[in-house]
Amino acid sequence: MQATIGFFSFSEVTDPRAHRAYNEWHQLDHMPEQYSIPGVAHGQRWVATPACQAARAVVAPWAEGAHYLTLYLMGPPVEDTLAAFAALARTLHDRDRFFAPRRSHLSGPFDIAARTAAERVRVSPGVVPLRPHLGVYTVVEERASGIPPVDLDVLVDLPGVAGAWVFVATPWPHAAGWRPGDRRITLCYLDAPVLETAGALAALVTGPRSPFGGPVAFAGPFETITPWQWDWFDDQPGPPARP
What we know:
The chain is α+β, with helices and mostly antiparallel strands. The protein has helices spanning about 20-35, 50-55, 80-95, 150-155, 195-205; strands spanning about 5-15, 40-45, 60, 70-75, 100-115, 135-140, 160-170, 185-190, 215-225. It has a single domain, classed as Alpha-Beta Plaits (2-Layer Sandwich). An eight-stranded antiparallel beta barrel has the order 1-4-2-9-6-8-7-5. It starts with a strand and ends in a 19-residue tail after the last strand.
């Protein structure tokens, strides 16, 4: 897969009754349309179910409301791809093909800095995102400039971690409105029950032998989304009735 950057978005659905509508829009309309851009190699979105939210080991205030994590893997020419990505967003918005009750808490392009795969999975590190998985464990570090590399071998030695990719924020000329900050994001791709694997990863991230060198702002699991199975938040209460 010819990808050199990842575009991330940590998103919150601001109307608790709108999760099904959001998933229908994103999975059946918005994400497929991104493949009209030649440089978009792969896209996927994961959900922080209520159980995943409860399993977060670290959560900074900016991430508390994040229900979903989206990642687009993009290839060269990166400048053209990002410009087309931003232009398509404007076009879809103008055509009323955007979803209003949502908020992105962290978004923007990140360079792919490192990749690895667990030896047991046999596939090469570069195709790990294409291998079926049950979810991802996500670690976001702040003030990422100059910190030591992530020890990926420690991560893939854990049962249930099929591979890991590391992304480092880099400013781009078309980044108006994007907020990657000075951050590093590590995705662990999970092929065992997400919450079970999350427990071991949480203990590693917060323990004395953590493979991460920067201040951790977020560490928690997201589950892979199955089309049309969007019922995780169906029991969420709506806004109070007006008197």
